[in-house]
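name: query_chain
kind: protein
chains: 1
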Amino acid sequence: MDALLLIDTDDASYPSDDAMETLGDIVTRTRAVGGVLIFASTKADLADTPDGELSIFVPDEEDLVLRSKSPDVFEGVDDLAAGLHDLSVDRIIIAGADATAAVPGADATTGVPGAGAGQVTTDPAAQAGGDADANASSAGTLGAVYASAMAGLVCNFDVVVLSDSTTDPDGNLVAWGDAAADAGAMVKKTADTWLRM
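structure:
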């Protein structure tokens, strides 16, 4: 069975109207078939926000609403993986807002994926073009969608990343799809993704 995991789809974090419309289609399909729909927030400033206001897709009483203290929702929510396995979920379809600071596996000097031998660049000086203080707090930081997708793989789920519904903080589609695919995730367009219930 599939679960649709939407991360940080609040109004401020998910500004792309195109991605919102595209993702809205699969949210509607998931609800229509009674699928597992999970809304997760990794934003500390939204900890006290009512569940129904946590996402632009308005979670209802049938949906699972989670708050994670970590970008990796499997780390930030106790027993999430075990609970999903208990529900017979074996594939997670994931999308939302992601603030990955660098393309995982890209060389810091060239930006070419694969040149970094599969590692996220964490050298603040390289990230900031020589100024170690400019980006020291975000250099090599994985965003919530990427971190959670990789954790889902480790937790023995098949993972599908929706390439046309996962955006950066500026509303642009993320650039790490190839790195996710290299790690074992499937990267697909939303319209090409069928739900297994």
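note: The first strand starts at residue 2 and ends at 7.
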